[in-house]
Amino acid sequence: MNILTNNEKFCNQSLKQLRNVIDPEIGLNIVDLGLLYELNLEEGKIVCRMTLTSQFCPMGEVILDGVHEALQNTFEGYQVEIELTFEPPWNEERISEHGRHFLRQ
User: Fold this and answer.
1) pLDDT for 21-39, tens place per residue?
2) Contacts by 42-47 with C-beta closer than 8 Å and gap 24+?
């Protein structure tokens, strides 16, 4: 898992909470699925740069709402900004070892 950040402690706290955000179609959390590209803590703001498994993901809004809620609840008082990108496009290589094991079950 390769997530860029400007604050490791913040990133680790975020990832702990974001593991609770599940892609409803796949049943795997977004961290192990590899949907997160970048998590940064800026002055009064959290910036999360992420993707979805496809541009046409029918559960995209549900996932984005889950990310927003998880970060907002964990870091009260901070504005949450989610930047959705499809560059680089998601691929299965982004799935963590834990995620691969989960999907093989």
Assistant:
1) 999 999 999 999 999 999 9
2) 42/6, 44/77, 44/78, 44/79, 45/78, 45/79, 45/80, 45/81, 46/10, 46/14, 46/71, 46/75, 46/78, 46/79, 46/80, 46/81, 47/81, 47/83
